[in-house]
Amino acid sequence: MNPIILASKSKYRAELLTNAGVAFTAESANIDEREVEAPLIEADLGGADVAEVLAIAKAMDVSQRNPSATVIGSDQTLSLDGALLHKPEDMAAARQRLLDLSGKKHELNSSVAIVRDGENLWTYTETSIITFRDLDPGFIGRHVADVGEKILSSVGAYQIEGKGVQLFEKIEGDFFSIMGLPLLPLLAELRRLELLDQ
């Protein structure tokens, strides 16, 4: 059976695959994400399209170094009021991100691609809508201090599986996709490709 490689350094994505019983190794893609997405933003593509292109680009990069391997690439973007946001660079930026999201809806676009020998075999993108409750600035400060620097690993400066769930008023979407990997469609495709037990 061809090996499966996750083209990601995300411990959350790796944990989702591991918990699902998928045997894989992980290898980071060597791409400049901002460089890849710049012409897409210039062309006014939405966050879902940007996530899809980045997921494919990551898988393609790792596929070039691993002939015959099945490579899974994934990416997630956050769209707020038509603007595409990136991971906060520091704790001050994380606090500002939560202030910006307070009382608003945003789109979380999660995309996954499967590539083998430089050929894109399959791509799937899911958009979740998350509504933040109105947050008191004092609460935000305490929350950021309590959660610590792991808050910087998420584009939204929150982890749905942890204390970040206290930030939300409503969630419309799949839990795994919000975590960063549309897991159920991915598992179905891996079975279709006969890479998992039927």
Architecture overview:
It is a single chain. 38% of the residues lie in helices and 25% in strands. The protein has seven helices and seven strands. β3 (70-80) and β4 (83-85) form a beta hairpin. Strands 1, 2, 3, 4, 5, 6 and 7 form a seven-stranded mixed beta sheet that branches. The chain is globular. The chain has a single domain (4-192), classed as Alpha-Beta Complex (Maf protein). The protein has 198 residues and is an alpha/beta fold. It starts with a strand and ends in a 6-residue tail after the last helix.
**In terms of per-residue confidence, which ranges show pLDDT below 50 for 5 or more consecutive residues?**
none
CATH class: Alpha Beta
Helix count, per DSSP?
A: 7
The topology string of helices and strands comes to EHEHHEEHEEHEHH
The biggest beta sheet is recorded as: 7 strands, mixed
Q: State the share of residues found in helices, binned by percent.
A: 25-40%
Q: Note the overall shape.
A: globular
* Number of structural units classed as domains: 1
The assigned structural class equals: alpha/beta
Strand content: 25-35%
Number-wise, the strands total: 7
Average pLDDT, rounded to a whole number, is: 95
Cα-based radius of gyration, to the nearest Å: 17 Å
End-to-end gap = 14 Å
CATH architecture: Alpha-Beta Complex
CATH fold name = Maf protein
